[in-house]
Specification:
It is a single chain. With 134 residues, the protein is an alpha+beta fold. The chain has one domain: Beta-Lactamase, CATH 3.30.450. Helices cover 53% and strands 16% of the residues. The chain has 4 helices and 3 strands. Strands 1-2-3 form a 3-stranded antiparallel beta sheet. The longest helix is centred in the last third of the chain and has 44 residues. The radius of gyration is 22 Å and the shape is elongated. The N and C termini lie far apart (44 Å).
Amino acid sequence: MVPVRHAPQQLLRFGVTLPAGWVRLNQQPLVISDFESETRWPEGVRVARELGSSALVLVTLTAGNHRLGALGVSSVAPIDPGPAEIAFLERVASEFAVAAEAFLAKQEAVRERDRLRTLTISLMCLCPSWDGTS
């Protein structure tokens, strides 16, 4: 998964070198039925082979307008998933993306709460007569 804050040229490089980057960039599922015939991502194929994988299905992790990444399922044997299997993986990815986005939103809320708490403490130190109500 590539964080959204990366520059576009880094996203393009990532998309060219790894299948998950391509899926995130294009927002389309990707099926690599057999790594033996795959030539687009030599680095990704090398890593997959080292892990003992022969095939890969990747679907997008998107919640609303937020591109979170890709969800992948690999196999030790070549596979050819049908539309129903890909639709199922997309549904799982959709549910996971919603949960991930909720988690990220909660983290942001906690950071904002902590920032406001720090500002309030600083203000109380600078203005000891302030009671925090106005």
